[in-house]
Fold this sequence. Notes:
The structure holds 2 protein chains of 2 kinds. By secondary structure, chain A is an alpha+beta fold. Helix content of chain A is 37%, strand content 30%. In chain A, helix 1 (10-19) crosses helix 4 (83-101) and helix 4 (83-101) packs antiparallel against helix 8 (174-196). The radius of gyration of chain A is 29 Å and the shape is globular. By secondary structure, chain B is mainly α. Chain B is built from 21 helices and 6 strands. Chain B is globular and about 80 Å long. The chains are: A alpha+beta, B mainly alpha.
Amino acid sequence: MEGERPSLNPMAMALKAVASLRLTVALLGLSIFLVFAGTLAQVDRDIWPVMEQYFRCWIAWIELKIFFPRDWSISGQFPYPGGWLLGTVLLANLLVSHTSRIRVPARGGRLLLGIGTLAIGVALTWIVISHVFEVDSTQKQINPTWRVTLQLLQGGGSAIVLFLGCWLVFRRKAGIVLLHSGIILLMFSELITGLTAEEAIMTIPKGQSSNFVEDRRKVELAIVDTSDPAADAVTAVPEAILAKGGELPVGDLPYTVEVVPGTFTKNSVLKEPGPRDRNPATRGIGLRVIADPKPDVSGVDTNGGVDFRAAYVKLTGKAGGEDLGTWLVSLEATMSDMRQSFKVGTRSYHLSIRFKRTYKSYTVLLRDLRLERYKGSAVARDYSSWVRLEDTPRDAVREARIWMNNPLRYRGETFYQSGIDEEGQSWTALQVVENRGWMVPYVACMIVGVGLLGQFLLHFAGFLRKQSGMV
Amino acid sequence: MKRHLPWLVVALAGSWVIASWRYPKDLPGDLQVREFATVPVVHNGRVKPIDTTARNVLRIVSNKETFVDSADKRRPAAAWLLDVITPAKEGGCRGDKHAVFRIEHPQLLDGLGLKSREGSRYSFEEFSGKIPDLRESLKRAHDRQTAKQVLDAYEHQLLEFWRHINEYAALANLDVPHIIPPNSGHEWSTLAEAVSRGGQEPHVVAWRSMLQALSANDVPGFNRELASYEELLEKERPGEVRKAAFEARFNEADPFNACKWFYLLGFVLTCLGFLGWSRLLSRTAWGLMAFTFIVHTFALGARIYLSGRPPVTNLYSSAVFIGWAAVLIGLVLERIFRLGAGNIIAAIAGFVTLQIAHILAADGDTMEVLVAVLDTQFWLATHVVCITLGYATTYVAGLLGFLFVIRGTLTTSLTPEVARNLNRMTYGTICFATFFSFVGTVLGGLWADDSWGRFWGWDAKENGALMIVLWNALVLHARWGGLVRERGLALLTVFGNIIVSWSWFGVNQLGVGLHSYGKASGITVTLLAFAASQLVVIGLGWKDPASWKSPLVPRGAGAGKE
């Protein structure tokens, strides 16, 4: 189907519309505006809600006020195609236009050879993406420059093989086909990352170990039974359920937990209650402080500016229905080490809102850490953590130095140096990311790069041929 | 004679540059300020000559790198620094008498009991008594800033003024720079630190004697002490001494400034060429700018040598580098097409970017140290360079579009032949722009993945880069799809100027995001004005081509499908 002859077949017409470059241009234009709006919106809002509201959605609601100085107090919003929608249509446009417009000039042996080369290229790409050649730099003390160069070279190698294959099959359009395949790969990788990758923080005091990570974007209500000195029993309620309110699912605890209606706040600060403040708390830290609601935190935060969630929960004994008190639970209180516990019968419990924790099969010991500043300047030059990762079930031990731009990779998880205390003496924070597909962008980058460059070179060669033909 | 004009101009420019590269010397009996300026110290995290510290601080308080003393003589920054570190008999320091503080806001002038005067520069002595009166408003402005509230012009000026006073005081107390070099296990330290741990080291003794000689107006004594201190340093740290001397010479020669004016001259010559003698003047302009480009390249190389970094590390160096790349492209285009357009582009790009760099230099050291995450030569050399080349090429395409519209609508010089060639240049440039901006953006993502474990975070600066990639892709697809022809392509590329400027400067104005290291203040208005000017050009070109001064025959072939 070349689309040259006029056709009345509605299916063909629809395909032609989807394949048109007009649509491509329109979609690109729409995307630029969406990205622009999504950037402006970050002035007022934290990056995560912006991402949900503009990019990782089908329909974005763009607020009018973001285009004007904020003191003009303009309100209202309008619907706009969201990131998922634009991405999907772009992808469809790309796929359809390529399958319908790109011809395969190669025939016979050349075609076979081309397809064979392409198959090798795809296999190579797959091998690279599945980390067969992965170099663990923290084990081999390899220079970061070399490590990244090696990763790019791996991608570059498979990209060049793919380009050869494309050239055999598609000739003049080889680069176009290849670079767009790279873009498809990149879009898919972002989709998968968006849906599956997990980011969390592991904070470890010096000389101690940790076996859990915290998701700094989500919180949970944690009720920890501390009666058994050997192991704590944790009952955790996710934020979404906490925010809905009502009675919370707490399993077989001997009491019920209920959110006092309307007391859950996305962001709040603790303050001493004034004479006119309503204070629902009857026990615990809530007797001393109350949670005062505040607007959300703005922008991508580099130093952990988080929303302090808070709520009041009422505990009632399951057996006798006795009132165990109404408690204030607040992330700010937890972060400033204000603990509250109580006893029911013989068992003692600890009650708090904390960052959502995920427990791991391994422990990470922080052996040492270092913060280095430039002389005569407050600018940090380097921060490093020396850690020992022990995975007892798998009988694996890793010793590593993690520093800026030099992460530790272990079984699909990557540990990045993320933060350190001001003096560089007492604790470190490691960003732990679970993303098996982290090599994909490296490969995709090289595929697009090689495709673009190859296309320009082919074009240029054609231009030269024409020039010499004219002489 | 006429044939030799290009060579003559280049020779003149060359001798000017060579002359400026000579480091000035003081007369033997005078205070050896120039010699003193080359002494290496540590300030803001790196070893540099005193000259750089003096220029940086003076630039911050006065927006100039020289000052006029009480005898109405213009003198170098190092001379000012010497006066600032010399205590005056009546208290304070000798520098208190020099009118270097730039104060412009009427309310601030009023608060300090000053009268507005030409040049707007005042000495510390003139207003120091009034500083305590400002305490209340200072505290208020500071609180508002901490609470991230919008500050008015006065509050901005007030905080800025306070920062200047602090910089000045730190220098006067010798809290900066760290002047005592490492020895016996200690790192670079301030004089006070070194004195507090005994102060018997030869460096401390030397500095104290120099300062004493200064206080006692003992010029020969100071010169003698300085000479022996330099000898000592030369023996201990020859590498740093040489580098510091080179930097002082580089500062004095100020090659980027020379380049800027040569580019302007190139612009004038090219424009004159449109009036007559076009070939000769165009060749002359090209020759001059090619020479300037060599100087520009040398100066870039010198910065790489001095900072030990790839060419782009901050906004200042990005401006210098964008200019460099755009000039190169302009010169190459001129060589191939000989339309004058390449010359114009080289001249405009060179002059404007170096002027922007000059303005950005007011923030202080242009070779400042880098925060830990940026401290990676590999990514600086690949991602940052690619992104910056992406900016440069997109701007060049935009300039070509700009020329197309201006020549077409305001002059009769845009013949179909010229239009077609301009278009080919634009198309080729856009192809490169797409390549560099795409690769640069993705490399940036890979860097983010490598340091934070997140390939793409929708951060403001990332988004800016993405917008350039998408825009260039849009332009290419619009051309391939036949949606735009020559005129349309030109108009699109002019709009590209707005997008690049947004990405380069605009996003920094938002003050959010992981990349807010590239911050700059007070340029929102300039940016908006620039965007408006580009829209005006687009509006101009939007008119029906039939009404253009240059009769552009609408062309079917050549500009359409590939």
